[in-house]
Amino acid sequence: MTATLSEKDLEQHFEHTLERDQRIEPRDWVPDGYRKTMIRQIAQHAHSEIIGMQPEGNWITRAPSLRRKAILLAKVQDEAGHGLYLYSAAETLGADRGDLTERLITGRQKYSSIFNYPTLSFADVGVIGWLVDGAAICNQVPLCRSSYGPYARAMIRICKEESFHQRQGFELLMTMMKGTRAQREMVQDAVNRWWWPSLMMFGPPDGDSPNTAQSMAWKIKRHTNDELRQRFVDMSVPQAEALGVTLPDPQLRWNEERGHYDFGELEWAEFKQVVSGNGPCNAERVAHRRQAHEDGEWVREAAAAHARRHR
Ligand code: FAQ
């Protein structure tokens, strides 16, 4: 005799899995809202990795030495790999990869605001490693404990690779800081341009974040946007001191009482502009991705024909 589980039983099983801090797996029943939120976050994350290849990719042909070129190529390839694991994780929830790509190139799905800023000098490559990968790790290490199994497991490998990326960025900046005065100025200029956008990567302030409360209840997110932003500031100040650069915030100071650094207000109007498609490079980034997708049409057709023949 097979007993059919009612919707209530399934819901209870889902709640118990969360309460016991176990992982939800692809075969498990989940509420529609959970599936939708998880697909949204994973897709936005995957798109960020793929679009995130562009700002640094811009410097591959102009890296100052063979060693720097090899390092940068490997890093950008890792980002492609992260995008692929993440699209696969979204597929386990029933999403279609082709559809997600279509949503990205038609501007219907978001990707991280940070990748809409230009990379003006080679120091930007170092600062992206140090600050952007640094912020990504700060945000993603807690996601290794996210309630959705395939996403949490993808995060473990992604975080390992991103820690390596962060160290390569820091090492590149250290080398430049020990170089000429012009190189030190280049690093400082890059830090000035990337500091505030890096803080925006953590998302809107908690009071303005429509998804945080539900995502925390579902244990998709483990900390709020502001908690992680603060953690990142606290972590970055001593690193900036070690490098010998100034973070461009006159209000940045240690608050003994709070046990954290106080920092200035972010330009939330700028964040909204960038997220709604009007940042300095949004149009260029999406156009480039759309072109790459169209150029790859023949590869997809050939792969499908090959698969049909083998079936
Ligand atoms: N940019 O209610 P919340 C990387 C959207 S990977 C654009 O707070 P949530 C690796 C948000 O999606 C970087 N949109 O949303 C790398 C939501 O959109 P909706 C990507 C943003 O989801 C390094 C709306 O605003 N990392 O860097 C941003 O609870 C170097 C309301 O916000 C991830 O995706 C933003 N900064 O929290 C690659 C990590 N912030 O509802 C190359 C996973 C918020 O309109 C080089 N994601 N929005 O569709 C997360 O942890 C979360 O999704 C947050 C946002 C924290 C990003």
From TrEMBL:
Domain of life: Bacteria
Protein name per Swiss-Prot or TrEMBL: 1,2-phenylacetyl-CoA epoxidase subunit A
E.C. designation(s): 1.14.13.149
Pfam families tied to this protein: PaaA_PaaC (PF05138)
One example of a Gene Ontology biological process annotation: phenylacetate catabolic process
Keywords carried by this UniProt record: Oxidoreductase
NCBIfam families recorded: PA_CoA_Oxy1
An annotated Gene Ontology molecular function: phenylacetyl-CoA 1,2-epoxidase activity
Class of enzymatic activity (EC top level): oxidoreductase
InterPro entries for this protein: Aromatic_CoA_ox/epox, Ferritin-like, Ferritin-like_SF, PaaA, PaaA_PaaC
Secretion signal, residue range per the UniProt entry: none
GO cellular component, one term: cytosol
